Amino acid sequence: MSKENKNNTNNKKESNVKQVDIAKVAQKDALHHSADLKQMNHGFKFHKTIFIPVFIMLMTVGMGALVIFTAFKTSNTETSNTMPEDSYAGVCVTDVIEIKDQKYLTCADNTCVETTEKTDLTCSDVGSINGCFGCENFVASVSEGVAPLEVSFESSVKSQKPVSYAFDFGDKSDTLETEDNTNITHTYAEPGNYTAKLRVVSTNSDNQPIEDYCETQVNVLAEKPPEKPVECLGLTVTPESGEIPLKATFTANGTGEDPLTYRYVFGDGQEITTANPTIDHVYNETGVYTAKVFVISNKKESPETDACVVTIDVKDINIPTEIANAENPNDQTVENTEEAQGAPVTHLECVNQTCQPIEGLGENLCSIDADCKKQTRLVCKNQACVEVYGQGENECQVNDDCIVTTVTTQDEKPVVPETGIEDQMYLYIILSIVLIMIGGITFKMGKEK
Predict the structure, then answer these.
(1) For the chain, how are helix, strand and coil distributed in percent, rounded to 5?
(2) I need a labelling partner for 98 at 20 to 30 A (CA). Which of 16, 106, 221, 296 fits?
(3) CA nearest neighbour of 116 among 130, 132, 134, 98
(4) How far does Cα 437 stand from its chain's mean position?
(5) pLDDT attached to residue 91
(6) Is the backbone of residue 133 left (phi > 0), alpha (psi -120 to 50) or beta?
(7) Sign of the CA dihedral 329, 345, 375, 237?
C-alpha cells in the first residue's frame, strides 16, 4: 500500500471519530436541555399554584377593607345628620348673598314707580295711581235721626301730594269745597234718605289731575218712633231634669231697644246679668228649682211672666241595685230585689266625663259625674303633654317630656352603630376563612403535581 493510501485511511478514521464525538455531545446537550425544560416547567407550575391562593387572599383583604371603610363612612354620615338645627357653633348655617339693585315698587307723587329702597308705600302697577292715591274712608257720626239732624263727617285719603275735597251732602245744598277735611258738619232739615259723597282731587307725577270718590248714607226721620216695649217673650231650658251635677242650658227671647241684657235667676241662690241670651248653669245639689229671666233695655226691666219661668228637677245619681248589693253584701234592705234579678250585672265607669253603668263585673270607678271630671292624667299627643280623662299613670309633666330628639354635640365623636359593623365583620371573617382554605387546597394540589 502506498504511503498516500495510508494517509487517506487514517484521515477517514479520524473523521469518523470526530463525528461520533460530536453526536455524543449533541445527545448529551439534548438531554441537559430536556432536563432544564422539565425543571422550568415544574417551577412555572409551582409558582402558578403559589400565585392563585396569594391572589385570592389579597382580594379577600381588599374586600374586607372596603366593607369596613364603607360601614364607617355610612355611620359617620348618619350620625352627623342628627345634629340639632340650633347647634350653630362652628357650623356655617347659610351663605349671605348680597343682592344689589333689588327692585321694589313704591309710591311717589301719587304714582307707582320702581325703587331700590323698600318702603311701606307699595303698589303693583308701574305708572298707575292704584294703591298710591284714593279715598280710603268716609263715615257719618250719625247714620239715623230725627230732623233737624246735625251730622259730622270724617274722611281719610291716601296721597303723597296736596289734596282738595268736595263734599256733596245729597240734600241739594251747595257743595262744600275745602283744602281741609277736618271738622266737616252739616244739618239735614228735612226727613229723607240721603247719600253724602266726597270727591278728592290731586295730581300725579306728571302733574296731571287725578280724582277719587267715596260715599255714605244718612237716614233722617220725620219724628222719633215710639220705643219698643221691654218684654220677655220666652225661656227654654235643656235638659229639664237629670242627675247631679246637672248642666242646664237656658235660652231667653225678648224685645226692647237695643242693646238688650238678660238677668237670670236660677233658683239655687245664684243669678247673673249678661248680654248673651243663651247661658249655661250647673246644679250641684238635688232638688226642684224654679228659674226665671228678666229682659233689660234702657234701664227698664221686663215684668215677670209665665213664659219666662221654667222648672228644673235635679235628682240624685241612680246606682243600680246589683252594684248596691255588691258593695253591701250583708245589707238585705235593698229594694226592687225581684226586678234586679233579671237585670244585667253592671259597674260604674267614667264615659265622656259622666259616671255611667257598664255591663259586666268590675270595680266602680265613680259614683257621680263629678268624680269623672277629677279623673285625669297627662299623656303625650303630637309631641305635646295634654290632659285626658281616665285613670292611669302620667306619661309626662311638660311638653318637653314628649319631644324625642337625637342630639350629637360637636364635642362628641360619631358613634358607629354596633349591629351593622359587627354583622359585616363576621361576614368578612367567614368569607376570608373559606377563601384561605380554597387557596390552601389549590396550593397543595399544585405541589403534589
Answers:
(1) 30, 35, 35
(2) 106
(3) 98
(4) 59
(5) 41
(6) beta
(7) negative
Three-state DSSP string of 341-393: CCCCCEEEEEECCEEEEEECCCCCCCCCHHHHHHCEEEEEECCEEEEEECCCC
- Which residue in 227, 289, 291, 241 sits closest to 263, CA to CA? 291
Q: pLDDT for 142-188, tens place per residue?
A: 999 999 999 999 999 999 999 999 999 999 999 999 999 999 999 99
Q: How far is CA 417 from the centre of its chain?
A: 31
389 in Cβ contact with 33 (< 8 Å): no
Q: Are 199 and 176 in contact (CB under 8 A)?
A: no
Q: How many residues does the chain have?
A: 449
Q: What whole-number distance in Å separates Cα of residue 161 and Cα of residue 262? A: 53
Give the whole-angstrom CA distance, residue 303 versus residue 153: 41
For 422, phi then psi, to 5°, come to -65, -40
Q: In this structure, are residues 64 and 387 in contact, taking their beta carbons and an 8 Å threshold?
A: no
pLDDT, tens digit, 9 for 90 and up, residues 36-49: 555 555 554 545 55
Question: Residue 164 corresponds to which cell in the numbers above?
Answer: 282738595
For residues 2-13, give the mean pLDDT.
54
| Count of other CB atoms within 10 angstroms of residue 160 | 16
Q: How far apart are CA 423 and CA 253, in angstroms?
A: 78
Q: In this structure, are residues 273 and 296 in contact, taking their beta carbons and an 8 Å threshold? A: yes
Question: Per-residue DSSP letters for 63-108?
Answer: HHHHHHHHHHHHHHHHHHTT--TT--TT---------TT--EEEEE
- Provide the angle, in degrees to the nearest 10, between the axes of the packed helices 3-80 and 418-448: 170
DSSP sequence for 199-228? EEEEE-TT--EEEEEEEEEEEEESSPPPPP
DSSP lists the bridge partners of residue 235 as 252
Cell numbers given for 402: 314628649
DSSP 423: H
* CA-closest candidate to residue 399, choices 378, 416, 413: 378
Short-list 36, 53, 54, CA closest to 445:
53
Evaluate whether 375 touches 387 at the Cβ level (below 8 Å). no
What pLDDT is recorded for position 250?
Answer: 96
Report which residue type is found at 39.
Q
**Residue 292: CB atoms within 10 Å:** 19
Residue 271 · residue 263 · CB < 8 Å: yes
Residue type, 184: I
The whole-angstrom distance between residue 150's C-alpha and the CA centroid of its chain comes to 55
Which candidate, 169, 210, 207, 209, places its Cα nearest to that of 190? 169
376 CB neighbour count, 10 Å cutoff? 17
